[in-house]
Amino acid sequence: MTDDLRAAALVSKAWPYEEARKVLARLKGGLPAKGNVLFETGYGPSGLPHIGTFNEVLRTTMVRRAFCEMSDVPTRLLAFSDDMDGLRKVPDNVPNQAMLTEHLGEPLSRIPDPFGKFESFAHHNNAMLRAFLDRFGFEYEFASSTEYYTSGRFDDQLKNVLANYQAIMDIMLPTLREERRRTYSPVLPISPVSGKVLQVPIEVVDAAAGLIRFEEDGTTHEHCILSGGAKLQWKVDWAMRWVALDVDYEMYGKDLTDSGVQSGRIAKVMGGRKPEGLIYEMFLDEKGEKISKSKGNGLALEDWLTYGPGESVAFYAYREPKSAKQLHIGVIPRAVDEYFQFRANYAEQPIDKKLGNPVHHIHGGKVPDAPMPVTFGLLLNLVGVMGADADRAQVWAYLGNYVPGASAEAYPEVDKLIGHALAYNRDFVAPTLKRRKPDARETTALRDLDARLAALPEGAEAEAIQNEVYAVGKEGGFENLRDWFAALYETLLGSSQGPRMGSFIALYGIANTRRLIAEALA
Fold it and tell me: Would the annotation count 293 as a binding residue?
């Protein structure tokens, strides 16, 4: 850690540093009693990991790294799975639905794995979470709610909840509907009869001993909530965890704003304090509606990774986390090219600009400097005109005329981008590709361009070709050159937008481009 980097980090306006400074201020120059700063992310394992899980861990990791650049206090990141929750409904995307239906209400960690691979449904989904996080190289510690409850690690704070039972009820009851108030309890006992997580009113018998009393099916039970005998309602559970673990930082979505306020008040009643954190905006679908797993209107992380590299989704997640952003297939190409553009700028930037560059946070300061001789947009336009049957070898053959020494071995990242471009073209471009016929003015201009290209050598430089394209537009009666380029995109490429035409023609070849023009004029 250089002095220059630390000095720049302490004043940088990039959001991870602004968040990290909240944690630094929280410490007041001291070291936490636990000896480290604890960052936490939460995960509800009733479903499989998704892009929201990725974004939360990624963004928290960025804040953690920013903190490490401005402080020598050790840090930890805890990925906490709420796997003691009762199963409320059977997910649509898992097998053995009938079997799961029989176990509704039971803790996820006690329900058989519908996939038949692990000792419980929670163990299966926890394994998926860990594999998911490991795939992206996150540095974290995994924590299981079931293990923390049953081991007694939460026992002291469970007693604390009982000791402050009425104060917690006073916080929660005004937030509930009248019907819910009649049955609400911060403590959810695990039934000694059915094994289900019960939502029933309780009476505190002995807070210090962890004893409560409740009624189930006409039978009154006196029950110990310690060591796995109960779990807490999630808002109370959230607060209890903050206090028990002394969590310093946890971010969450805007939809949990009110819950965060209530949990923060409960943590204060329990003698602790709410962690620092960022309230981030939610992703929206193509229509501007909130993404919902039940609606299925979101973009799965696997979908993004089919059509763009992982760094591009990290880049998209980094940008303006407090602003709502649309998340759909159409945003991928631009995110890919912007990521590589910011990466190309990084090496020559002064330290303060580096810290504001998204790639610094994506790569933890270790930014690759491998050159990218071609943009993703240009590759998409190339495979678009090549057709749905285009393959990787054909693309490389074109690149060989455009990039000296072009090969998959020399440019492995380009090779991966080609795979993404082929997939994107196959699934989204080729099925809807439609080139419009040029109007009279555009027809004249295209004939002029064809004549000018015919006068150029086949291996002409992109800049020389671009000059001719410009000249045609200026002399062809186009008041706005954007109209000329739009005409080229729409008549030759079947797209509303496209690449720098000089670069595209140099890549695709003058003879091939003249064939496109002939097809447009036919």
Answer: yes
